[in-house]
UniProtKB/TrEMBL annotation:
MF annotations from Gene Ontology: arylsulfatase activity; metal ion binding
SUPFAM superfamilies: Alkaline phosphatase-like (SSF53649)
Domain Sulfatase N-terminal, chain residue ranges per copy: 5-429
Gene3D superfamilies: 3.30.1120.10, Alkaline Phosphatase, subunit A
Keywords: Calcium, Hydrolase, Metal-binding
InterPro entries: Alkaline_phosphatase_core_sf (IPR017850), Sulfatase (IPR050738), Sulfatase_CS (IPR024607), Sulfatase_N (IPR000917)
UniProt organism field: Kwoniella europaea PYCC6329
Protein name: Sulfatase N-terminal domain-containing protein
Family the entry assigns: Belongs to the sulfatase family.
PANTHER family in UniProt: ARYLSULFATASE, ARYLSULFATASE FAMILY MEMBER
Pfam families registered for this protein in UniProt: Sulfatase
Amino acid sequence: MSKQPNFLVILADDLGFSDIGAFGSEISTPNLDKLAKNGLRQTGFHTASACSPTRSMLMSGTDNHLAGLGQMAETIARDPFYQGHKGYEGMLNDRVAALPEILSDAGYETIMSGKWHLGLPKHAQPHARGFQKVFGLLPGAGNHYLYEPFLDDNTPAMKFLPPLYVDGPEQISHKDIPGPFYSSTYFTDRMLGFLKERNTEKPFFAYLPYTAPHWPLQAPDEEIAKYKGRYDAGPEALRLERLERLKQLGLISKDVSPHPIMSPYGYKSWDELSPEERAISAKKMEVYAAMVTVMDKEIGRVIQLLEDRGELENTFVFFSSDNGAEGALLEAIPVMGDQIKKTVEKFFDNSIENIGRGNSWTYLGPHWGQAATAPSKMYKAWATEGGIRCPSIIHYPKLGGLLKQDNGVTHEFTTIMDILPTVLDLAGVQHPGDEFRGRKVHRPRGKSWAPWLSGQRKEVHDENAIHGWELFGQAAIRQGRWKAVWLPPPTGKDQWLLFDLDQDPGETKDLAEAHPQKLQQLVAFWHEYEAETGTIVNMADPGVGGFGRSTGINWDDWGH
């Protein structure tokens, strides 16, 4: 067996802060809960506010505006404003050294099974970026049962979800994948196969990015049935339940002021829904919960294999989500707009008894999404904490320090950009610096967790460190406890807001007037961040990448 550590990085897709048991959920996740009990839970772990930007930060250790995903690829493809700008290639660009590339050169076996979302062209696919063994879904989501209706011109009906997969270096059709297929189970099957056949003389880096619980909401009937009736009281009741459990677990303070649920895009509140609408909404949440439970079971299979082979002790396991819970059809709207509803009605069966099956197509909606991100404000695509703060578990007791305690919890601020330097540090591998394989590359902006986890340092990022976010015209800049947020119309008032996250993690009290000098300082930091990262914003199309305001979608007709 190798003396260098192995690595297993597991990423859920659009999982909310309180969507697993170890973070206060009623959803059954015993395998993740066990990892948390024997590891460390992070309440201050941060990502980008959407999927592919976060993944670019994970793979590069630097900001998404430098790594090629300055905007979602789906937005870049439709908006000429972003096209041609460095950092907005819509794929992991060649100005970063990808983590699997670096580890491959250092003698690691690199393995991936799951969602890529970092580029469709051959040169941007996972095998080309360092994964030696890979089964992957290339775009941002896919039908969990491979139910893929096509139009008469032989193009996918769901144009934003082309069924594009790769097996090793080869791109394959969904028709080439043997059935029966359910995404979480099949991704796990392939990962287990790769791990069983690997060269045990070499250490491994395994990346397992699931597509659960990302829409479309689909899960086995028997798993959905376990949650029947559980969500009949609605999202506000669920939010209050979870907040109480988060307090009991010590994950949030007992006197926290949670941000109230907001109703964007004309959504009706639970009280305004008819009994039939409530039943449909609750059924969607039952399916969502079942997706999370199935994913947990599959994670358990991987952990069990490592344990059976005597490799778990020497494996650094990291689990998180790629952003806050989903509250809207983020990737779909730039591509299809108001055609989504018409396409779903034509090709799918969303009757209540069929919701959750492969030929249904539903998503969760903003109220359930906010139940999962409380006490934070809003969800995926927002620069507020609900969009960028995610549950995180680290399991590697061998390192000692913070990882030696049972049921460990830390509130330290950390970021997805820290993963690459942490992995390289623990592996004893140097980042190549400014040049890699004959090309100029960016150095990581993240910091290694190893000195902090082992007890040599008290923090990862000191109180003077600056952290910035921007997607869809929403911006945020943070230094220590202070965070400034810019929300353009229709989500905000085109002005900077100021929050003290130590006292107000729900971002409920704007302190801009009370502390004008601090706000001025943070705004100056924002402009420095903007210049350093090459961030650009299309002010002619503000407001979450153009969705939610001018799409023409009747949101009252399109789910709750």
